[in-house]
Each structure stands twice: as C-alpha cells, then as structure tokens.
Design brief:
By secondary structure, the protein is of the alpha+beta class. The chain contains five helices and twelve strands. Helix content is about 30%, strand content about 25%. The protein is elongated, with a radius of gyration of 30 Å.
Length: about 230
C-alpha cells in the first residue's frame, strides 16, 4: 500500500494568501507564463472557491476565465468570497478525512471479477474504470470512477495492480483479479507476453512423447551394451 496523509487546502495549488495587503496591479503577473487568479468555484486539483492561485496563462485564457471559474483578483472580490471560502474549506477537510479513511480500508484489497473469455484468455469485452468503481461500490467501497487510475481497459484474464487516487496526496494500490466464467481449455500450455500476444511454447504432449522416446533410446542402448558384454 502506498498512501500519504491528508493534504491541506494550500497543497491543492500554489495558493497566494488572501489578505488585505494585496499586491499592486503591476505585480499580479509573476511572469509572462503565469497569472494570479481568484477562484470563483472549487476546481479539482487546483483549489477551492476564494483561493488566489498562480496558473499558466494558457490554462487561464482557454479554460478558467471563459468558464467563469476564475477572475482577476481584487481586495473587494476576495472579501466577498471569504465566507463562501470558509464553508468550502470545512467541506474539503471533512471530505479529506473520509477519503483518508477509505484509503486505509482499501489496503490489501483484492477485487475479483468474472468475465466471459475465449480459450486464450481474451475477454469478450473489457474491464473499465466504471466496472471497477461499480464493483468496489458493491463491496461497500464508494470510489468515484475518476479516482480509479486505469491507463487502459483490461482485456485479458489475470491479476492487475490498479491505483486508487484522490487528489495529489491520497493513493493506494489494489489487486484486480479477472477470472473467466468457465474453465479455459489448454490454458496451462499457453503463455502470453505483456501485450497479450500468444507465445508459442512446446506442447505438453510433445514434451511427454519426447521424454518417452528418450527413455526408450536409453533402454535400448543399455540392452545393446549388455548383449555385447
């Protein structure tokens, strides 16, 4: 298990303290690449309403400002959002406590899923983030789909390590065991690489025949040696 303690609101972003000693207009932009903005709403992995954060110009221009999520801060606007920020901060801290407890409960969890598969172990379909989230919920682990960090859908039977992560600081790994809904024929005689491609291996029967032939040859050699003696 890998997890860290709860984050504080200041860890969500590069937050500028919202005080009456607000920097002059000519110092708002720390550089040509970043700008300070006041968040009008909570933005995941960035900050909560009322935070003054430094963000890249492109992110501000193309997303935060057009969506009404942030604006250029002024002392008056910061003061107007102060009460709303306190409420959001309290909810954030409560949520962090719940998420930290959930991360602890997920330690060493192994989730087993059963799926239809062909004889080579390929799934008819796939296991997605939504599937894992739903299966966890059925086992009393309420994990949002976006918290399931699955780089690509699972398409083969087997055991997989999947990360569950909340924000930047709370994370743990769980095992996802995908079993076929029926026994797979000749499964033991097949091996697959990391990409799911079949690796041609010597068949068990052929190996047994070869071993039998070797034993026969050895026996024949021994008999010939005895006859010669």
């Amino acid at each position: 298990m890998k997890h860290r303690g709860p984050a504080t609101a200041s860890k969500l972003a590069e937050v500028v303290p919202a005080t009456s000693n607000f920097p002059r207009k000519d110092t708002i932009m720390a550089s040509s690449r970043r700008i300070e903005l006041l968040l009008n709403s909570n933005v995941e992995n960035l900050g909560i309403v009322g935070d003054v954060v430094r963000v890249r110009m492109g992110f501000a221009r193309n997303f935060l400002i057009p969506m009404g999520l942030a604006e250029i801060p002024t002392p008056e606007k910061i003061e107007a959002l102060a009460a709303e920020r306190e409420i959001a901060l309290q909810k954030y801290e409560e949520n962090q406590t719940l998420q930290a407890a959930l991360i602890e409960r997920l330690a060493d969890v192994a989730l087993t899923l059963t799926r239809s598969a062909n004889d080579q172990g390929g799934l008819y379909g796939s296991v997605t983030q939504r599937d894992i989230s739903d299966a966890l919920a059925e086992n009393d682990f309420v994990v949002p789909t976006r918290a399931v960090r699955l780089h690509q859908a699972i398409r083969r039977v087997g055991t997989y390590s999947v990360t569950i992560q909340f924000g930047k600081d709370l994370r743990t790994d769980i095992d996802i065991i995908v079993n076929p809904d029926r026994p797979l024929e000749d499964r033991e005689e097949m091996e697959f690489d990391d990409e799911g491609n079949l690796i041609i291996v010597e068949q068990k029967a052929a190996s047994e025949n070869e071993a039998s032939e070797t034993e026969s040859e050895d026996a024949s050699t021994e008999e010939t040696a005895e006859a010669t003696a």
